[in-house]
Amino acid sequence: MCCLGCQAVAQSILESGLENYYLERTEISPTAPLPEKLELLAGYDHPDTQAQFVHREEDYACAELSVEGLSCAACAWLIEKRMHQEPAVRQASVNYSNHRLRLLWDDRQTPLSVLMSDLEKLGYRARPFRQDTHAGLLKQESRQQLKRLGVAALGSMQVMMYAGSLYLGIEEEAFREFFRWTCFIVTLPVFLYSGYPFYRSAWVALRERSLNMDVPVSLALVSTFIISAYATISSTGEIYFDSVSMFIFFLLTGRYLETRARQQAGETAADLSPVLPQMAHRISCSEQEDVPVSRLEVGDRVLVKPGETVPCDGEVREGCSAVSEALLTGEPLPIAKSAGDALVGGSQNHDSPLLMEVLRPAATSTLATLNHLINRALSEKPRMAQKADRIARWFVGRILILSALVYVGWYFVDPHRALWATLAVLVATCPCALSLATPVALTISTHRLAKAGFLITRGHVFETLAEATHVVFDKTGTLTAGRLVMVEWQAHADSPDKSLYLQLAAALEAGSEHPVAAAFHELHLPDLPTVSERRNHPGQGLSGDIDGTGYRIGHAAFALQADAHLATPDEGRLRIWLSRNHEPLAWFDFEDQVRPEAQGVITALKVKGLKTVLLSGDHSGLPQSLGKSLGMDIIAGGLSPEAKIRHVEDLQAAGGIVIMVGDGINDAPVLGKAHVSVAMSSGADLAQISADAVLLGDRLEAVPVAIGLAERTRQIIRQNLYWSLVYNIAIIPPAALGYVSPWLATIGMSGSSLLVVLNALRIKRYRL
């Protein structure tokens, strides 16, 4: 510490639980020096620090990290390869388009600091991802690139001016030597400063016994500079300092434009990831205390003032206000909230203060889970991306061999042109565009769909959606609103107190998440009897013992186990039976509303040529009447989960690619069987969802939109891949034969990468 004031500031920061300040700042502050214990990466192993950015997936820790120093897609491959060499790492996926690393590892075996140290040794700095700091890092990277580009631009202009004098044929040796050395001096900062990222990336790759796109580029630049420097010192031969400067200038120009385009492609991520407040107003013993959001625990009471962001998931205890949940529901207008209503972290309070009780801390909130799902989808590479990366790595090695053959061939034909032809081949054929073809397009599409309410959680979804042939729907909670209302009930057995049957039914349904159970919960019946041995029978009903007697509630075939002549419900109603030892006691009729957008969704899918299927566990006539009214192709009701799976397997056996849309509660088995599983966000807890995609705000209309955008994305990716392959193959013969000059090859390589990114940006104009 330089003084007692600095010591007091640092101590205050630590005592306030704000140690993360030292891990996220970009510059050293003179008033808050970095404590020695936080200088090392071991600071990221502290549980309080990891609570900010590490969550659990099964038995593994999962972290999202921002990575600095990525220069090409091969850098991403190198990081993944190095991380997978660690036995503790289960998955390491780098999204090159937004410079983020998703790490899944066993933290009991290897601490995070060791893995981050391995990245440091590779030359890449990793730090915990946060939307605000990550955006700052990307801007800082752009500024650094712009500085290097400025030096290269100034140097190349000056070198071209001096080299032009040599091209004019000055005969005085003293002037020729002067211009040679001037070119050498002016080129030196361009070569050392502006070209440094290429050499560093190439050296890291070679040190790890691998190849990336910067290896041939660096080889071309270094060899040309050394030959020119030797010619200057020895006063013999030709110099190519103007070519070196132009190479670096054009390469940096292309890379800078590419970086800006990639950042533009990922800008929608910020819209989906609002920054949660760092502090919250916790109320304890009628006193207000400002504490870090990370320290909020379940049961804490928090005051959310007008205009503030809700810090985590909770429930309103006092107050009435309007809250905007547009992020999750897509509803642009604020929603009225009062005591007993749920609040979602990240939503905005508008009118009046609200006192809320924390139900989930920020690290496990709905918003945090949503971000984890998006990041998981972006980090998982589909088959097309994996294939492109393999081709790119294979291509670099072959290009180095081809360049050597070109040099040898030209050396025997025309030694003076050997270097130029070799440089042209090395630069022109760099497969940067090939590696960029897929990730940029997927990043844009993923965020576009998330804004439309279709949250992709697995990387393969885009490919599979574009190939789908059948879309299978559940009924209750999917095509219908899933909010059943009891419209009538009647005792079927004699009893002095018939209301007892209603209480028995409500007691059996207590604790269940099925829409039928929700209808009983809304009755708020007091003094329910105690149920023991309660069992859930998926697709059939519930059973349990009350006072030693066995009761069942569910469909007639399950509750009664007899083909009795029973009164059938009116069309559009669902009837549930209560039985005691299989003897009928009462029946309950429920009604549900068809979603208003269901007809438009089915029509849109049929227009795209897809078959629509309704599979329901409802034993009544509702599935048939609903399916026919919507014009669905295949309708089946009264199905158990096993029967639904068999239907899906039959479709798959016939060559169908099946998308299954369900509420995620009793549809889990069949969702897992489909090629793509889509769950309604209201049907299951996002934190427990294992579906391939989630419909935010239950926006069913997002299904045909997702299929359309997936087809468009696949088309864009194929265009990018075809263009990249055609360019790299077509440029080889003219470059090897000497028809392409090195500076033109540089423009071609940079232009090819930029074209791929700009083509991917067209996805942003797709009408949702």
In words, what does this structure look like?
With 768 residues, this protein is an alpha+beta fold. The protein has six domains: 1-39, no CATH class; 44-129, Alpha-Beta Plaits, CATH 3.30.70.100; 140-268 and 376-430 and 742-765, no CATH class; 279-362, Calcium-transporting ATPase, cytoplasmic transduction domain A, CATH 2.70.150; 454-481 and 595-698, Rossmann fold (3-Layer(aba) Sandwich), CATH 3.40.50.1000; 485-591, Calcium-transporting ATPase, cytoplasmic domain N (3-Layer(aba) Sandwich). Helices cover 49% and strands 18% of the residues. It has 28 helices and 27 strands. Strands 15-27-26-25-16-23-24 form a seven-stranded mixed β-sheet, sandwiched between helices. It has a six-stranded antiparallel β-sheet with strand order 7-6-8-14-9-12, with no helix packed on it. Helix 8 crosses helix 9 (214-234). The chain is elongated. The protein starts with a helix and ends in a 7-residue tail after the last helix.
Outline of the structure:
The chain is α+β, with helices and mostly antiparallel strands and 768 residues long. It is 49% helix and 18% strand. α9 (214-234) runs antiparallel to α10 (241-265) and α15 (415-428) runs antiparallel to α27 (702-736).
Keywords:
6 domains, six-stranded antiparallel β-sheet, seven-stranded mixed β-sheet, Alpha-Beta Plaits, alpha+beta, 28 helices, 768 residues
Query: What strand line-up does the widest sheet have?
Result: 15-27-26-25-16-23-24
Report low-confidence residues grouped into runs of 5 or more. 26-39, 268-272
- The outline comes out as elongated
Mean pLDDT: 79
- What Rg do the Cα atoms give? 32 Å
Oligomer: single chain
Largest sheet: 7 strands, mixed
Structural class from helices and strands? alpha+beta
Tally the structural domains: 6
Strand content: 15-25%
Number of strands: 27
**Distance between the amino and carboxyl termini:** 57 Å
Helix content: 40-55%
Number of discrete helical segments: 28
